[in-house]
Each structure stands twice: as structure tokens, then as C-alpha cells.
Fold this protein.
Amino acid sequence: MKKYELLFEPIQIGRVRVKNRFVFPAFGSHFSNTEGEVTQEIIDHYVRIAQGGVGLIIVEFTAIDRIQRGSTRELGIWDDKFIPGFARLVEALKPYDVAVALQLHHPGRFSDARITGYQGVAPSPISAMTMREVPRELSGGEVEMLVEQFVEGTRRAKAAGFDAVELHGASGYLIYEFFSPLANQRNDEWGGDMERRMRFTREIIRRSKERVGKDYPIILRMAVTDFQEGGLTIEDSQKIVQVMEKEGADSISVTAGTYDSPIPAVVPPVQMAPGCHAELSAAIKKVARTPVQVAGRINTPQLAERILREGKADMICMGRPLIADPDLPKKTMEGREREIQICVADNTCGDSITRGVPGAPLVCLMNPQVGRWGKEETKAEKSKRVLAIGGEPAAMEAARVAALRGHQVALWHAAPKLGGRWSYMLQPYIPHRQAILKTLGVKVELGKEITLESVRQWKPDVVIVTKGLKPTVPKIRGLERAKVYQANDVLEGKVKVGGKVIIIGGNNIGLECAEFLNRQGAQAVILEEKWVGRGFERFIRKGATNRLSEHGVRISANAKISEVKENQMIIRNEAGKEEAIGMDSIIIALPGVIDDTYVNDLKGAGLEVLAVDPCQSPRDYVEAATTGASLGRKI
């Protein structure tokens, strides 16, 4: 405990005492309904986070406007009718000695007409690069009305019993847009020079304090830089912070980047360093008089304590880490750090709530109980012998759930390590899952020769198996002249490849293969007929392509392969010109074709078989794992 004395030191945010420095920042869950109301799932979610010992919970982004919402399942605070639901949530959290704030949100130009049915609005009619539509410029009267909506949101939050509110000025949303010289190019009282660009947020804070009392805490969450030329700089944000504190802001929460930024900093992926925003919060802390919070891949208590000791922040925001393991604070206090389920920043969580329209509820690769709080696995009426075959998440989850239900379980995998072709990318997911399986008594056998006879000899009552994949071989003239390998064989360590390598396929498998080879000193070129990074969550995709480019890996989208000659591949590149690329070997990284042969052989032998499709992309991890878990519950 002593080595984490700063993490467990209380702190004041205005009048509110926070018992420790752990913050669960606003993170959309999609557990609300389409009317924006608090549901039992929302309450269960935040109660479970609170039970782990966090000091401050900031309830997820909540719409101040009925029309302009970030998703169809975003919480709402635009009407008094929402107060009773939020009051139930606050009441449910009271037994856990946790401070609770509500984040107030307006998407601005990141509003999506496919979701809302309405054109987005913004300070200026300048579209975000990642959006398909140009927003409508707000009139001066509409800006005044939005200020009032934020103020009324604050009033309602206080009426519901929240200890504070947080204004969402990060990620590229409306408050950030007013600050930004790129997004706000007005020339009236709401835009122009820095003083006028700050007015919108100053008015929200000033009028909110007048409405609810000067001692009611307001937190300002800021993207303190957007990493864009001509955009918001850390020096700009230092000035903004000093002005907002004078106006009444009681804490500053530091993030960085927007959805348009060249660096994927909004939800930093695995390619970004742990604690990646700590230097930015240190710069803010130099001028701030109120507590400074910081987010950005802070996934261990050791790193969190070090940031506090170095004076770079006063409070530590752990969104994804507390989703992966809500008990992180409690385990830290009790000296059980080794038991913490570490967030691997694979961004499955973010992808789960942003993929498609309207999106889906929050899930987590590391923590399959997310969204299933309180739904423990029940014991089966009769214990059976269950054999899980395969090393992917589906097989591991099936084995875990079957063991929890009281079955005698074994897991066999032909490769020397779990994870299948994902063994390289799924660190440290695999050792954690392996440790859980060992604790549950699952006998894991790796590098095992699996035959129909060996399965029969084990005498299983049920076999759970991941279906096979037949490799895809593209029809390319002269391909037989080259040394050709499948990406899965490379990633599983079955073959070693070096020198100049051309990877056919710029999907998730191709990018992962390039990263793998780059670390081994090979020179890789990725050729993709369509767009690069299919199968990756957007921040992981941006992080992966940025990292590969920095390491000299050429990535060509819209590339058409014409022919393979001796030590050369002839292509028509993205510019439409013919080009010859030198090579020593070719790796095919294309989606495979599902093969039911092994499943049919097992069924033909009279065995009861439950089968699941294999993962073909990181987006399939959780879906496959969820399917595996459901198979375990069927037995």
C-alpha cells in the first residue's frame, strides 16, 4: 500500500471529496435504451465499476439536445423526465463511497445524419475529415440556446444527485470546435481570436454556476492539442485552462487528439506508449490551480503512481483498464497487483460501440463479464467430459465456461502456443487466459498431434471444435515461379521468412504479418487491391499503418498485380502506373475459406460436436469468444 500512497490519497474537486486518485472517465456503453433513458443494465454496469474501489466515476456522454446525439443509445438529459432515472443510478452508487459526475455532450460536426436524421451543426460549416457531410453553421441565437442547454443539463444533473458535471471538450466535439482555429472560423462574438473562441465555454461555466451555485463542481475535459497544423496547441490550452479556472472550472481532464488527428490519440491503441498523454498533462499542470486528471493508456497502478509522483497529474483516468478489470483499485490496495487483468488496448471495447449504426453494447476481449454483471455461470446438472480443440478465443472461452459449469475439460491445440494465428497480436491476453484455465483445472495440451483416434481414446461426451480454414491462393500469372507462403504459417512460426517480402493483402492479417516480419528484420511491401486495414478497429488501423510507415514498410492500396517474374512482381500501382517490385518471397494474407471437413469427420465418428467459425479478423475475437462461451453453457 505504501508504494501506492499517492494513488490512495484523498483529493478535493471543489466541495467534493474523492477518496482516491482513480477515475473511471466517461466511456460510452450503449446500455441505455433508444430513448436515452437509464436502464437496469446501466445501473448494473456502474455499480460493478464502483464495487472495485474507484474514487470518481464520470457517467458516460449524455446528450443535452434531443436531435443532435452521438448515437441512438446515448443517454439524454435534455428534459426533466430524465432526472428520476439518473437519481436511481446515483442512489445505487451511494453504498460504495464513490463520487459521481455526469458528462454533458454535444457532437457538433461529428453528428451523423444516419443516426439523427438531421444535418449536424457547428461553429463554422467545415466538415470533419472522417464525416460525410458538411455541418450547418450555427446562428448567434442558436449558440445562445446551446449554452442554455448545457446550463439546464447541469441543473438537472444536480437535481438528480450527481456530485459534479463534466463538459465534454475533447475528441473533436462541439466545445472543442469552438476552441479550435481550424473548426471555428467565425468572425462574431463566438469566434475569431482566442478570446472570442473561448466565450462559448466561459458562458456555459459562468451561467451554470449562477444557476446551481458557485460551489457546484464543473470539470472540463479537453483535447489539449489536436496534432494538426494550424490547430489547437498545448500553449493555446494552457491559456484556455487559466481562463476557465477563473470562470469557475474545478478540475481539468486532459486528453489529446480528435477523430481527424493524424495520430490515433482519442482512444490510444496498442501501438501507442502507455501513459502517452502524461507529458501533455504535465504542461497543463504547470499553469493549473485545480486538480489535473489525465487519460491515455495508463493501464497499471505502477505507471499511475509514477505519473503522480512525477507531478504530471493529480488524478488518473482509467477507462479501458477498469472495464477490463473493475477491481484494479481494490487489488492494488490489497497488494494483489499480479492478479490484475491488464487492458491490452486492442480497442475491442471502442469498436463494439461504434461499428455500424446504431452500434452495439460495450464488450471487452479481456473481460467477458462486461454486460453480464451478476450473471454467474450456473452448474450443470451432470458433469461431462468436454474436449475443446483449437487455440483461438472461441475454444478458450468454451473451455473456461464449461469448466465453471463443473465439467471435466481438456483443451488441445496442435500448435506449440495458444492463440492460433493471433498468438502474436493477442499478448498478454493469452497468458492471462491460460492462467485462468489452469486455475479452473482445464488440462491444456499444446503441440499435440490430434487425430480422430486420439479424440476417441479420450472418450469425450462433447467435443467443441473451431472449424478449419483452407488457404486462399490468388490466380496470378507466374506465381508458381516464386517462393510462396501463407501468412498464417508465418504468424504461427511454422515457416521463417526474411529478405525482401511482398505481402498480398492489406487486411488485418497482412498488417500484422508485416509488423511481425519488420521486427525480425525483413523488408516488407504490402499490396492491397482495395483499402488497407479491413478487420481492424479504426484507431488500431491508424496506429498500425502509421507505425509500419515509420519503419519503412511500403503500403500500397488500390494496387493491381499483373504478373510474377523471377525475383520481381509486376503491378499497376495506386497512381495507375506499371511498376516492378523486387522480392525474395511472397506471403499471401487473404481471408481463408471455412473448411468443415474435420467437423464432419468427428460427427461421422458418432461424437457429439459443437462447432464455431474461426476468427478471420480482430473484430471477430469477441464474437467468436462469445459464441464459444455460449457453447460452453449448452453442455
About this structure: Residues 44 and 373 are 6 Å apart (CA to CA).
